[in-house]
Amino acid sequence: MAIRELKICLLGDTGVGKSSIVCRFVQDQFDHNISPTIGASFLTKTVPCGNELHKFLIWDTAGQERFHSLAPMYYRGSAAAVVVYDITKLDSFQTLKKWVKELKEYGPEDIVVAIAGNKTDLGDIREVPMKEAKEFAESIAAIFIETSAKSAINVEELFKKISRQIPPLDPQDVESNDSFKLSRQPLPLNRRCC
Q: Which residues contact 117 (CB under 8 A, 6 or more apart)?
């Protein structure tokens, strides 16, 4: 079975739960006291997808404005970007639209974009209507899903949806393993998670 390395970056405001989503997906853990990411953290997980194995090289970027200028280093060469917002914070959804605009202008042409509304466990204080977010995602041909890293709702499904959007390898590419591996870039890391 062919193994494909796929670079995935997570973008969005600070505090929306990007690190929690990654930790839930990779380690099936949730930490109530997780501290903000500095620069970016890096984790991997391999999952089956059809006749392939997808090894996700996941870059969890910092959401603070002072780290915004580093983001292009992470989304360049990415197979997919997950733009996360907090369903209880309308501002985070507005920021998400800026991230999407930047990705469309400067990101890879064929990048798979996923919009993830996190913290569905706090639905009673929701500020972002699901319908509005879903319509926005549809307008840009993005994957849309609502998640709860805390309750482990739809986190696995988010990455499965991304896997299904990645075009399968051409059989000729399988013969040359190097043709579909993405190089790892030396970037500032914060390997802390959960």
A: 84, 85, 86, 87, 93, 128, 130, 133, 144, 145, 146, 147
